[in-house]
């Protein structure tokens, strides 16, 4: 095997929560394991809906995006993120949680 590429499924919230190794891990992923585009799953953009989903707020995604872009630029790499968004989360649809 010559190279392993991460195209999706990375947990940006866990990377940010790992104060010991999170940035080192992200730097290695950015340097060696992104083919130009990587998908992350914030799943929504409103903090109250994210809270109903048990997800961190959007500030976490924005911080990760900034780190990813900064590290990519420092390496001279043209890489970008794309996002998975859920259009109709069951908690919102059933009105348990309001957007």
UniProtKB/TrEMBL annotation:
InterPro entries, per database record: UPF0313
PANTHER family: UPF0313 PROTEIN YGIQ
The protein's name in its UniProt record: Uncharacterized protein
């Amino acid at each position: 095997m010559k190279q392993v590429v991460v195209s999706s499924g990375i947990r940006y919230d866990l990377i940010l929560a790992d104060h010991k190794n999170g940035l080192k891990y992200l730097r290695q992923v950015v340097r060696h394991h992104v083919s130009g585009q990587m998908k992350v799953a914030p799943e929504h953009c409103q903090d109250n809906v994210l809270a109903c989903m048990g997800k961190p707020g959007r500030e976490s995604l924005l911080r990760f995006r900034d780190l990813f872009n900064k590290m990519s630029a420092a390496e001279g790499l043209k890489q970008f993120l794309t996002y998975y968004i859920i259009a109709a989360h069951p908690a919102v649809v059933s009105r348990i949680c309001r957007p």
